[in-house]
Design goal:
Elements (H helix, E strand, L loop, with lengths): L4 E6 L7 H14 L4 E6 L1 H4 L6 H17 L7 E5 L5 H10 L4 H5 L2 H10 L5 H16 L4 E3 L5 H18 L7 E3 L34 H10 L15 H14 L3 H8 L4 H28 L3 H28 L4
Parallel strand pairs: 1-2, 2-3, 4-5
Bound molecules: adenosine monophosphate (AMP) and tryptophan.
Length: about 325
């Protein structure tokens, strides 16, 4: 039986952190053999808010390199950069012409992001979910592994596909979001009420995948806890629960095992052991990242191959879309 197709995208807004790794990338690595996968660095989404060109250039390469370093391989997956494949922008334009504005007005992420930006909000930011729909539908993806926050965008993508199919004939596969179970949500170290994020002003809130063991130790040391003694998973104590969750996700141990292990110990023991676990878990990834970026031209070659493979599929799909729309014979 043919494998199902997976598509997911990741922005190039800054260095990747432990939340991206535990909530997204490590799951992509684990499931990649089961599916045909496309993993895309969505640089056109990234520019929906202003970026410094030099920093953006570096971030795009870093994110792509980290995907390979984390274990995404060319045998099962196509890794590429969105702007290298023209079909994404073309299909987004076509979808603009079938998507009612009202659908986009309902998007909660737009409401949140535009509040932060006030007068500077671009048309692109409003249109962001339409481009995301184009990403997914170009590749006939069945499954879209994303965090909870992206569920609404994947539903919108289905609605766009359905409307297009209804008007112009069966062209698009209706995709489903694949959301990891709770626990795959890593919170900020300083503010454990909010999820760990790339754009957080305070860089000590996140552990980045390329942080050194010293940096990791310093950040974990500063992590918010509370004045209680017992070390246990407790929803009402977000700080300690977040540290334990990171420990759980990286060691694969059960919650009771972990609580027994830390029973009678204090926060500094937990923080010390967690530093060790995080540093050791990231070490192989960091080594691979160094190897593949040290070799000049290596990453560029992989990305060129990725763009070529993705481009072939995208072009086939665009042709089919044009035919159904009456743009071509
Ligand atoms: P983004 O950084 O927003 O481009 O997200 C890339 C992927 O990482 C998406 O699938 C997100 O849902 C996931 N992700 C981002 N932040 C976290 C977090 N703190 N915990 C778990 N998953 C996350
Ligand atoms: N909007 C997604 C995020 O911020 C990134 C993204 C863009 C994406 N295109 C996609 C995710 C297509 C899945 C599928 O996380």
């Amino acid at each position: 039986m043919a494998k199902k197709t997976v598509f997911s995208g990741i922005q190039a807004t800054g260095s990747l952190h432990l939340g991206n790794y535990l909530g997204a990338i490590s799951n992509w690595v684990k499931m990649q053999e089961e599916y045909d996968n496309y993993f895309c660095v969505v640089d056109l989404h990234t520019i929906t808010v202003p970026q410094d060109p030099e920093i953006l250039k570096a971030n795009i390469r870093e994110v792509a390199g980290l995907l390979f370093a984390a274990g995404i391989d060319e045998k099962n997956s196509v890794v590429f950069i969105q702007s290298y494949v023209k079909g994404h922008s073309e299909l987004a334009w076509i979808f603009n012409c079938v998507t009612p504005m009202g659908w986009l007005h309902r998007m909660t992420q737009f409401k949140e992001k535009s509040e932060k930006q006030k007068d500077e909000v671009s048309v692109g930011l409003f249109d962001y979910p339409v481009l995301q729909a184009a990403d997914i539908l170009l590749y006939d993806a069945h499954l879209v592994p994303v965090g909870e926050d992206q569920k609404q965008h994947v539903e919108l993508c289905r609605d766009i596909a359905q409307r297009f199919n209804y008007r112009y004939g069966e062209v698009f596969v209706l995709p489903d979001a694949l959301i990891p179970p709770v626990g795959g949500r890593v919170m900020g170290l300083l503010n454990p009420e909010k999820k760990m994020s790339k754009s957080e002003e305070n860089l000590n809130d996140a552990i980045f995948l390329l942080d050194t063991p010293d940096e990791i130790g310093a950040k974990i040391k500063r992590a918010t806890t509370d004045s209680q003694r017992e070390i246990c998973f407790d929803q009402n104590r977000p700080g300690v629960t977040n540290l334990l969750t990171i420990y759980e996700l990286l060691t694969g141990k059960s919650r009771t095992e972990i609580e027994d292990h830390f029973s009678g110990k204090n926060y500094s023991v937990l923080k010390g052991e967690l530093t060790e676990v995080v540093s050791e878990s990231l070490r192989p990834l960091q080594e691979r990242y160094r190897e593949l970026t040290d070799e000049k031209g290596y990453l560029d070659e992989m990305l060129a191959r990725g763009a070529e493979k993705a481009g072939e599929q995208a072009e086939r799909k665009i042709r089919q879309v044009h035919e159904h729309l009456g743009l071509r014979k």
